[in-house]
Specification:
The complex is a heterodimer. Helix content of chain A is 31%, strand content 18%. Chain A is of the alpha/beta class. The longest helix of chain A has 17 residues. Classes of the chains: A alpha/beta, B alpha/beta.
Chain lengths: 466, 211
């Protein structure tokens, strides 16, 4: 009898190339994604060492972080990023790594294109020099961000030297309410569990609420796991995932797909598996949620009051005051009604077709409020095309939104696209850090529907009241 | 590939704010310009400088006593956020070699060891005691990785725990890639078997890729 294992245990065990002792293992990397910011330095590291890329056929690249999303963009249009984008082209071509380049089929935010093209597979290991690689856990892949050195190590050896993360489960039971999305759930978890709950752990999201999520919603939920401190997140793959993957560009076909599914069906935590941390969450407690501060856990119900010193745990009073000051908010005020300058719908958290549809449903028949700059940045070329086929681009542009080219854009703000100093932004991205969307930019994280509601009213708005 | 870490004597600066993220440590747009020589100047810039670009005198590492500190005692969850490795190298370019905190962002923590930075995790109580000591005295702390100990300015010695393989790598400046390539044959053999075991992993279309 083998002892009961978690989903993480099963995937981990299937990737141990070598036991390095003291709890360390050499772990095989099945998929390695490179982007324009972290890819070139890692590839340059190998070149300096005169080492070949071990498995270029398991490595894929796309520019997303430092490219402009300007409508009609055809090439690298952000001058400061040109050097790195050129480096990515040169170095991937030399190494025989497939590049999904600007203007071409497949380009987009790395964590949007990987699932969408079937590069992400259940039970596979996947890395990228980007912390939101955990997004791919929504399909049941053990996916996590790495630094440049680890990326170079994987390029040279197709492995990583690692210790297994600890097992953590977040079980969510029940039905989500009206207008409550996976993003609201993630912000609720952050608000409830904090930013360090998952440190040194991999989080498995489980329970009836999670099983009922659409595949794209699962990607959104897993996307924010790193904000809870977890480098990776997992959701056990099921029929919805298998159906999602069937026929995708790089997904297996024929008998191999059937064999894969037979294996993927074994990828669930055993009934009596033990988790180092196990947390239960009631879906009925989740309401539309928005961040008020400068850390994603500083989030609150949309119909609530901005927290004050009385709500702060001991020792964090100064941090709370600093957050309020940066955000230009007063303790005890309602968050709803606060005037908004910018709205950004995009990022690896919420730029998939279902996100754009959700925003479009709110925008339909309305216009962007005067004085508000509102952008929609689809996550990939494929999302862009699909949305255009449905007429969503027209719906957004007619309402006063900008309809832009795929990329990270204002989520990472490393591409010339920033929220101006002091301006208040409602954003579907995943980080509201100080200066994240630009120096002194004030970011409120929310779902696509809530962001759309803010755009059309010009204020932070409870989407349920529209 | 980096200078080994053995023993360090320095004052210990205190930055108590929790959740100092890697965006705050180094703004991402500073990484696009290829200006790596100035990366130390950009470290923690939102905290370190005022809006007019002058130094913020209240920022701990701008204060005369801690200006040259190589040890930082930080708030919990230091280095959370993005995977950017220059968050580590920017702090090193600022002069830091050791960061002590209750917890770290996982990726930042791993990146430290790739660059010769020693991150030390301590309980909240231990961190608080070190903070009190660092603020009370102008003497130096001694961090000794051989003994896994910190001797505070007041002369108290505390012992920290660190993964033995991580410690060994820091002490010797060992390069991970070189170590792993010693197992090249094992990796190739594992992959060969995996092609039969999990053919679907190896099926991603490769036809358009140049040989």
């Amino acid at each position: 009898m083998t002892p009961p294992r978690t989903l993480l245990d099963k995937i981990w065990d299937a990737h141990v190339v070598l036991d390095l002792s003291d709890g360390w293992s050499l772990i095989h990397v099945d998929r390695h994604l490179l982007h324009d910011l972290s890819g070139p330095p890692a590839l340059m590291d190998l070149r300096k060492r005169d080492l070949p890329v071990h498995n270029p056929e398991l490595t894929f690249a796309t520019p997303d972080h430092i490219v402009s999303s300007r409508p009609g963009r055809v090439d690298d249009t952000f001058p400061a990023g040109a050097r790195l984008v050129a480096g990515l082209r040169l170095l991937t071509a030399a190494a025989g790594i497939r590049l999904f380049d600007l203007g071409g089929e497949g380009q987009g935010i790395v964590h949007v294109i990987a699932p969408e093209m079937g590069l992400t597979l259940p039970g596979a290991t996947q890395i990228c020099g980007d912390s939101h690689t955990c997004t791919n856990g929504g399909l049941g892949a053990l996916a996590f961000g790495v630094g440049t050195s680890e990326s170079a190590h994987a390029l040279a050896t197709q492995t990583l030297r690692m210790r297994k993360p600890r097992n953590m489960r977040v079980r969510i039971e029940g039905s989500l309410g009206s207008c409550v999305t996976a993003k609201d759930l993630a912000l609720h978890l952050l608000r409830t569990l904090g930013t360090t709950a998952g440190v040194e752990h991999s989080i498995e999201f489980a329970g009836s609420t999670v099983r009922a999520l659409e595949v794209e919603e699962r990607l959104t939920l897993c996307n924010l796991a790193v904000e809870m401190g977890a480098r990776s997140a997992l959701i056990a793959p099921d029929e919805a995932v298998f159906a999602y993957l069937r026929g995708r560009r790089f997904a297996p076909t024929g008998a191999a797909f059937d064999a894969a599914i037979a294996y993927w069906r074994t990828l669930a935590s055993d009934e009596d598996a033990v988790f180092d941390r196990d947390i239960a969450i009631d879906a009925a407690d989740v309401v539309p949620t928005i961040s008020w501060g400068t850390s994603p856990d500083q989030s609150m119900p949309i119909d609530g009051l901005v927290p004050g010193p009385a709500d702060a745990p001991l020792g964090t009073l100064e941090d709370l005051a600093a957050s309020l000051d940066y955000m230009g908010l007063t303790a005890g005020q309602p968050i709803a009604g606060e005037p908004v300058d910018w709205v950004f719908i995009g990022s690896c958290a919420n730029s998939r077709i279902s996100d754009l549809r959700a925003a479009a449903r709110v925008v339909d028949g309305r216009s962007v409020a005067p004085g508000v700059q509102a952008w929609v940045v689809p996550g990939s070329m494929a999302v862009r095309r699909e949305a255009e086929a449905e007429g969503l681009d027209r719906l957004f542009t007619d309402a006063g939104f900008q309809w832009r080219e795929p990329g990270c854009s204002m989520c990472v703000a490393a591409n010339g696209e920033q929220v101006p100093p002091g301006a208040r932004s409602v954003s579907t991205s995943n980080r509201n850090f100080v200066g994240r969307q630009g120096p002194r930019a004030r970011t409120h994280l929310a779902s696509p529907a809530m962001a759309a509601a803010a755009a059309v009213t010009g204020r932070i708005t409870d989407v349920r009241t529209l | 590939m980096f200078a080994p870490f053995t023993r360090l004597s320095s004052r210990a600066a205190v930055l108590p704010q929790a959740n100092i993220d890697t965006d705050v440590i180094i703004r991402i747009e500073r990484l696009t310009a290829g200006d790596s020589a100035r990366i130390g100047d950009y470290a923690l810039e939102a905290l370190r400088y005022r809006e007019d670009g002058s130094e913020n005198p209240e920022f701990p590492l701008n204060q005369p006593r801690w200006r040259d500190a190589q040890i930082l005692i930080a708030g919990a969850n230091f280095g959370c956020g993005s995977s950017r490795e220059p968050a580590v190298t920017a702090l090193m370019a600022m002069g830091l070699r050791c960061i002590i905190a209750e917890s770290f962002g996982d990726i930042f923590y791993a990146n430290c060891f790739q660059n010769g930075m020693l991150p030390i995790r301590f309980s909240a109580e231990n961190v608080a005691a070190l903070v009190a000591d660092a603020e009370a005295s102008s003497s130096e702390f001694v961090v000794d990785l051989h003994r896994c100990s910190i001797t505070t300015a007041a002369g108290c010695e505390v012992v920290f725990t660190i993964d033995p393989q991580r410690r060994e790598a820091l002490l010797s400046g060992l390069d991970d890639i070189g170590l792993t390539l010693r197992h090249a044959e094992t990796i190739t053999a594992w992959q060969q078997a995996d092609r039969t075991r999990r053919p679907w992993i190896w099926m991603a279309d490769t036809r358009e890729i140049a040989a």
